[in-house]
Amino acid sequence: METTEPAQRSKSPAQYSFDDDGAVSIHGSQSDSLGTLYWPPRLRCPRSGGTVSPALLSTTATLYSWSYVAMPWRGDVPPNGEADGYGVGLVDLDDGGPRMSVVLMGAAESFVIGETFEARELPFTTIDGNPQSILAFERSAS
Amino acid sequence: MSFSNDVFVLGVGMSRFGGPAQQLDERIIAASLEAIEDAGVPYADVESLYLGTSLAASTYGPPVVKDLGLTGLPVTRIENASATGGATFYEAVQAVGSGRLDLAMGIAFDDPSTSAVPDFNDVEGISPVLDPFVPPMAFFSMWAVRRMHEAGTTAETLAMIAAKNWNNARLNPNAERQATEEITVERVLGSRMLAYPHTARMAAPQGAGAAAVIVGSRRALERYGLAGRVRVTAAQAHSERYADGHLFTGAIIGPPEMIQRAAFSAYEQAGIEPTDLGVIAFHDAYAIEELLYYESVGLCAPGDGDGLVHDGETQLTGRFPTSTDGGFIGRGHPSGPTGLAQIWELTHQLRGTAGDRQVSNPRNGLAHIVGGGSVCYAHILQSV
């Protein structure tokens, strides 16, 4: 009797990735007709309804706004060594990139709108012996 | 878009949000019976029922309202995040305003403590809705920090808005927050920090609740011999348009353009100006929202919202009384029923039955609510 494999769920496209050497890639989409960049990746262009192509986005950005969330960090090691809070921000990626909401590295209320930031890998916990990381932004070295 | 038929709010009801523990079923039936009694029409004559919930399990709702009567009417569940109550009202109003029906009812409810909504961030194949590291309150706080940067707004101004709403709630027996003494700006600022600059007293509580409304046509008014009912003069539903800085992740409560477009489309439909508003219900889940919405809906020029607060213009005795029932911050925000609670409050204000929080002779009221995703509803009610 012929059997049917259960339907497989497809994973969402990667939104970012890290190389072994720690380099960050931010995965987005670019409108084929308008050139507009989007993050996270889109299936179609929200402006034109047309097609999009995969695009690697800039990993440097300007801080649009920020806050400091007074809640426990969800991982093992708080990003700033403080157990009761961490920074979050809205950053505008360089080279015409989109705005993103991200975790910010830095002390409470130390952020300044207009500052430049760089993407980096932030290890936050280990699951079954495998380190888990998220995308974060850190103030650019001047 | 205008209505083919005039639409009136015939009756409203709501359970107190939050408060003593009570089964959600009981809250739903109590709010519904209050609306039916207030309307003065038999439930058996209601031609369509819209049930709003953004947190309840699938199929919850229709079995509960069987206790109102198994009349065979169409029952439709509606969900639109925080704007679910606004969406529920909108659908009921459209059913009557289009001329399709003469009587429609909306009931909305939620109990956040028993939410059945799954965490979509953990489901493969579905784009993450929320970044677990950037919670909803962070977005509103980042709005606030940007506003402070651009316009010099201070945390004290946000605290003044929150204190106003806490103190309005003290006059509303259906509000979740019932402070025993006046809430001062200092007490708001001194409460626990959630996400800079918002403190716990600048944010909405999320207890359980239910609210209900019955709307009808002019024909229904005549059939049941009803008089003095509030008229719905505009019902607008909007979503976002693309603009630079558009966010595709997070608990996004849309851009100013959507907020403004919904309100001004409603003014055009109702044939009024923002200055004609005598009472306003906002989506003040966080204090910064109310401040920004003053400007978005045209109560003042961009950047002048702080002055409106400091001049007392949004107090019960001011030119633009806002969040008169306590708003999200004072009355509470269970999610589903919040939009119908706005209609409950505007209806009482426009009838002159709002008790100790009654404002002076309002002619037009605006109910303005947004939902993550994002969507926006604007309704204008008018005394008759």
User: What is the CATH class name of the largest domain in chain A?
Assistant: Mainly Beta
If you compute it from the alpha carbons, what radius of gyration of chain A comes out, rounded to the nearest whole angstrom?
18 Å
- Integer count of domains of chain A: 2
- Given this structure, which CATH class of chain B is correct? Alpha Beta
Mean pLDDT, all residues of chain B: 94
Number of helices of chain A: 0
Spans of at least 5 consecutive residues with low confidence of chain A: 6-10
Report the count of strand segments of chain A: 9
Q: Can you tag this structure with a few keywords?
A:
heterodimer, A: 142 residues, mainly beta, OB fold (Dihydrolipoamide Acetyltransferase, E2P), five-stranded mixed beta barrel, globular, B: 384 residues, alpha/beta, Peroxisomal Thiolase, Chain A, domain 1, nine-stranded mixed sheet, two-stranded antiparallel sheet, 11 helices, 11 strands
At a glance:
Chain A is mainly beta.
Structure characterization notes:
The complex is a heterodimer of chains A (142) and B (384). Chain A has 142 residues and is mainly beta. Chain A folds into two domains: 12-57, no CATH class; 58-142, OB fold (Dihydrolipoamide Acetyltransferase, E2P) (Beta Barrel). Chain A is 0% helix and 46% strand. Chain A has a five-stranded mixed β-barrel with strand order 5-6-7-9-8. Chain A is globular and about 45 Å long. In chain A, 30% of the residues are buried. Chain B is an alpha/beta fold. Chain B has one domain (7-112, 206-382): Thiolase/Chalcone synthase (Peroxisomal Thiolase, Chain A, domain 1), CATH 3.40.47.10. Chain B has helices at 24-39, 84-97, 136-151, 155-169, 185-190, 218-224, 256-270, 287-296, 305-310, 327-331, 338-351; strands spanning 7-14, 48-52, 75-78, 103-110, 193-195, 198-199, 209-217, 230-239, 277-281, 364-371, 375-382. A nine-stranded mixed sheet of chain B has the order 3-2-4-7-1-8-11-10-9. In chain B, strands 5-6 form a two-stranded antiparallel ribbon. In chain B, helix 2 packs across helix 11, helix 4 (155-169) packs across helix 8 and helix 7 (256-270) packs across helix 8 (287-296). The two termini of chain B are 22 Å apart. Classes of the chains: A mainly beta (142), B alpha/beta (384).
